[in-house]
Amino acid sequence: AQSVAQPEDQVNVAEGNPLTVKCTYSVSGNPYLFWYVQYPNRGLQFLLKYITGDNLVKGSYGFEAEFNKSQTSFHLKKPSALVSDSALYFCAVTPPRRGSSNTGKLIFGQGTTLQVKP
Amino acid sequence: DAGVIQSPRHEVTEMGQEVTLRCKPISGHDYLFWYRQTMMRGLELLIYFNNNVPIDDSGMPEDRFSAKMPNASFSTLKIQPSEPRDSAVYFCASSSGLWGSPLHFGNGTRLTVT
């Protein structure tokens, strides 16, 4: 079955320190990978995506993510965390297009709460 | 661009009542999605439309749930009759494509059924 796992319910980091939010996936082929962020009482906002090309993808607000095919991972990173980065982060994957056999629906992880302390 | 607009932001209703949630997608987006978010189940895709046509409604939990998209700029999600277990935040999202296109979410409707 196709799935996305975010192994940490919560990540705590001090402001100014680097942060990593982990994501692994189980999808055959070369999937499309996404990160979204959700602030309180708001909808999800797109941060970045990986389709093909360089394994390191840069996105909004200084975030980046590294695609690792051998480890089937797509970890979200930021060199220096801000208190304002505190939010709920979702990893998502779309299976690769293969005729009509895949619907293109996004599969979301359960989310990881990032807490950045001053 | 005003983004995806949902109304109401909050809805409190009694069990057995009909509830209608509304969504206006981003102009030009061909795909519209309805999601439900709860602590227990996370984000669940309920249904999605392409060019106003329902494509996949396999996530709709029961016959009490129905969704329509009468035109490219409006969609509704209706629950009739509502039950306490329907309490959740319901999100509408739109995108310009399916594969590889990011979703743009509205701010959601928080539904409480008492």
Structure overview:
The complex is a heterodimer of chains A (118) and B (114). Chain A has strands at residues 3-5, 10-14, 19-21, 24-26, 32-38, 44-50, 56-58, 64-68, 73-78, 87-94, 107-108, 112-117. With 118 residues, chain A is mostly beta strands. In chain A, strands 2, 5, 6, 10, 11 and 12 form a 6-stranded mixed β-sheet that branches. A 4-stranded antiparallel β-sheet of chain A has the order 3-9-8-7, with no helix packed on it. A two-stranded antiparallel sheet of chain A has the order 1-4. In chain A, a hairpin with a 5-residue loop joins strand 7 (56-58) and strand 8. The mean pLDDT of chain A is 92. Chain B is globular, with a radius of gyration of 13 Å. Chain B starts with a strand and ends with a strand. Chain B is built from no helices and 11 strands. By secondary structure, chain B is mainly β. In chain B, strands 2, 4, 5, 6, 9, 10 and 11 form a 7-stranded mixed β-sheet that branches. Chain B has a 4-stranded antiparallel β-sheet with strand order 1-3-8-7, with no helix packed on it. Chain B has strands at residues 5-7, 10-13, 19-24, 31-38, 42-50, 53-56, 65-71, 74-79, 88-95, 104-105, 109-113. The model of chain B has no long low-confidence stretch (mean pLDDT 95). The chains are: A mainly beta (118), B mainly beta (114). Chains A and B meet through strand 5 and strand 6 of A and strand 5 and strand 10 of B.
